Amino acid sequence: MFRYGNRCGALAAAIGAALVAGTLPAAADVKLYGKVHVSVDSLDAKGAGTGGDATSRKNTYVSSNGSRWGLDVSEKLGGSLAAIARLEQQIAVDGDTTSQDARNRYVGLKGNFGTILAGIHDTPFKELSGKVELFPDYVGYNRNILKPSANSGQNWDLRTANSIRYQTPSFNGLQAIYQYSADTTASTSVEDNRRRADSLSLEYNGGPLYLAYARESHRLNTIADGGNPTETGQRLAGSYSFGALKLVALYQDLKDLGGTAAGAASIKRKSWGVGGAYTAGNNVFKLQYYKADDLSNDTAGASQPETGAKMWTVGWDHLFSKTTRVYVAYAKTGNAANAAFRVNDAQSDAVTPATGQDPSALSLGMIVDF
Question: What is the pTM of this model?
Answer without folding.
Answer: 0.87
